[in-house]
Amino acid sequence: MMKRQNTQPEICLIFPCYNEEEVLPDLLQVLHSLDLGVPMRFLFVDDGSQDDTLRILKEACLLDDRIACLSLSRNFGHQVAVGAGLKHATGDIVAVLDADLQDPPELLKKFIQKWQEGYDVVYGIRSNRKESWFLRMCYSSFYRLLDRTANIQIPKDAGDFALMDRKVVDVLRSMSEHNQFVRGLRGWIGFKQIGIKYARPARHAGKPSYNIRRLTRLALDGLLSFSSAPLRLSAWLGLGSAFLGFCYLVYALITFMSGKNLPPGWTSTVVLILFLGGIQLIVLGILGEYLGRIFDEVKGRPHYILNERAGWLSDSL
Predict the structure, then answer these.
(1) Higher pLDDT among residues 4 and 91, named by residue
(2) Phi/psi of residue 156, each to 5°?
(3) 204's torsion region: left (phi>0), alpha (psi -120 to 50) or beta?
């Protein structure tokens, strides 16, 4: 693998934010003392926060000319905020980190070393999560299910925390799909990639913005965007229900030909109706999810609406 000639690249760190007023002062302090050995810029994307997040970020832009802020008109979602950051990021390499300090910024030194060795994407692998056992079980199950069903290789236990070369960022920026799953798109585009394990600490302050509903939505985006397994599952469910119906038909014929008295049949009829009706609703639900995504793409609406910019991005207005 050829090493890169550029030993002093400029790096842009992207932080999507939603109601992060409690953790931002500590994060800004960490960034103020951060030394990665290369020129740095910081880009914060305020995803429609309802607290003082935007005010804190605008004040930080005035105090440090390396900081810029994008403000979206409402909450469009974490993945959309990441996409907005990638679209406006500058520099030779770009890194995506959570604003809650669960992605250690100092670990980027190792990421940069791997980039200098020739890797185009360096991503973090969460080897230890300081979260509840239920969430850890859900995350682990999701990544392993995605690994078995996806039509591409998506690293297990790897989130959005990653460093990417400019050419990778340019490819991601060119993708126009609405239901984006960034870590999946990152795997889909290929190039030379490597993971680095790290212990993911607990959230530094504040409350996580991801609840069960948001996590379920993200999991569905990942499964439906990179796998046709749900469609195949619906076909197998249909075949399975048809096979069970055939077996019951054979049983009914044998019972009739043997001369036995047939039961009134109310219970078996209700069971069959409920079973087949449930299968049909599951299949329709799966098809509806795919059709809903097609509908989102056909409408052609923008991924987000920009409210304002601050810091070094204001020069591009």
Answers:
(1) 91
(2) -75, 145
(3) alpha
Residue 198, pLDDT above cutoff 90? no
CA 30-22-139 angle, 5° bins: 85
Per-residue model confidence (pLDDT) at position 190: 79
The pTM of the full predicted model, rounded to 2 decimals, is 0.68
Per 3-state DSSP, what percentage of the chain is helix, strand, and coil (rounded to 5)? Answer: 50, 15, 30
Helix locations, 67-193, DSSP H: 78-88, 108-116, 133-149, 166-174, 182-188
Residue with tokens 């991005």: 313
Q: Collect all residues with Cβ–Cβ distance below 8 Å to 249 and sequence separation of at least 6.
A: none
Cα angle, residue 44 at apex, residues 53 and 67 outer, rounded to 5°? 105
pLDDT score at 317? 47
Read off the pLDDT of residues 20-74 as tens digits, 9 standing for 90 and up.
Answer: 888 888 889 888 888 888 899 999 999 888 888 889 899 888 888 898 999 898 8
So what's the pLDDT on residue 65?
Answer: 87
| Residue ranges with strand state E in the chain | 11-17, 40-46, 67-72, 93-96, 121-129, 158-165, 193-200, 306-311
Residues in the chain, overall count? 317
The neighbouring-strand residues paired with 125 are: 158, 197
Residues 6+ apart with CB under 8 A from 15: 27, 42, 43, 44, 45, 85, 97, 98, 99
**High-pLDDT (> 70) share of the chain, %:** 58
**Predicted confidence band at 15 (pLDDT cuts at 50, 70, 90)?**
very high
Degrees, nearest 5: CA angle 155-163-168 = 85
Distances, alpha carbon 225 to alpha carbons 81, 102, 217, in Å: 18, 26, 12
- Rg of the Cα trace of the chain? 25
- H or E, element range at 36: none
